Amino acid sequence: MRILHTSDWHLGQNFYSKSRAAEHQAFLDWLLETAQAHQVDAIIVAGDIFDTGSPPSYARELYNRFVVNLQQTGCHLVVLAGNHDSVATLNESRDILAFLNTTVIASAGYAPQLLHRRDGSPGAVLCPIPFLRPRDILTSQAGLSGSEKQQQLLHAIADYYQQQYREACQLRGERKLPVIATGHLTTVGASKSDAVRDIYIGTLDAFPAQHFPPADYIALGHIHRAQCVGGTEHIRYCGSPIALSFDECGKSKCVHLVTFEQGKWQSTESLAVP
After folding, report:
1. Rounded to an integer, what distance in angstroms lies between the CA atom of residue 48 and that of residue 54?
2. Rounded to an integer, what distance in angstroms lies between the CA atom of residue 253 and that of residue 27?
3. Rounded to whole angstroms, how far apart are CA atoms 187 and 205?
4. Which CATH number do you get for residue 102?
5. Domain count, the chain
6. Do 164 and 202 contact (CB within 8 A), yes or no?
7. Which of 99, 147, 179, 240 is the most buried (most CB within 10 A)?
């Protein structure tokens, strides 16, 4: 089983009034070629497909054209919402894109599902976790202090991940299938760039890696610099495919090619975006 892990496309971004359309088109063309060259079974986009909740028409066109072109290769596409994405915008085309071998996860509440290889056989179990909005996983309580709200949110996110993992293990059963989880959040110790905005303002600054479940691979988005989390090889940010702020200029950009064998993570190769 092979997947490509990418995130933070930010389609539709204007950088100081300069459109990034040509750069994004070049990246998507390269990603399509890369998926074909490596015979990838699935591409996971871990959030922030668009730069705003109401992306311009050309950004939607880039997205839709990529889905159509990828579908012809037999590679499955999984799109997860980030904090920049609008739930309504992603959901408006979800049912149509499902016919084009594309799964769109715009909000919390989706059960783990099987990812299939190109030949149709089960290849992995996916915990499809997008950006978790507090209103989706928390019940509001009056009278809590700032630190209490922070702990409440941390526990709610941790509980959501653990529940997803338990359900994934049940779905896997006795089959030798890896469990892949996703996420769109800041983890403790992650190196951020200027373009990354805080997503849990005034409550949770960063999520401790030890609260993640023991999935075989955790594909993260939100941080624009590719990096491992907590000294592990299997919990990773892939970073954005193009520079989105001045302090990202000159930095290499990549996607991760992740290989699984016999139901376990085998390797992660960073493929440089030209």
Report:
1. 12
2. 11
3. 8
4. 3.60.21.10
5. 1
6. no
7. 240
Q: What is the pLDDT of residue 192?
A: 62
Domain range for residue 241? 2-272
Helix (H, G, I), strand (E, B) or coil at 33: helix
Round to whole Å and give the CA distance between 219 and 255: 11
**DSSP state, 107?**
S
How wide is the angle at C-alpha 77 spanned by C-alphas 120 and 190, nearest 5°? Answer: 125
Average pLDDT taken over every residue of the chain: 92
How does pLDDT run across 101-124, given as a tens digit for each residue?
999 999 999 999 999 999 999 999
Structure tokens at 188: 């403790």
Which residue type, as a one-letter code, is found at position 100?
L
Reduce the secondary structure of 156-223 to three states and give it as a string: HHHHHHHHHHHHHHHHHCCCCCCEEEEEECCECCCCCCCCCCCCCCCCCCCECHHHCCCCCEEEEECC
Q: Residue 122 corresponds to which tokens in the numbers above?
A: 């089960």
CA-to-CA separations, 39 to 5, 119, 144, 160, 255, in angstroms, rounded: 14, 11, 51, 32, 15
pTM (global) more than 0.90: yes
Sheet (strand 264-272) strand order: 102-105, 76-80, 42-46, 2-6, 254-261, 264-272
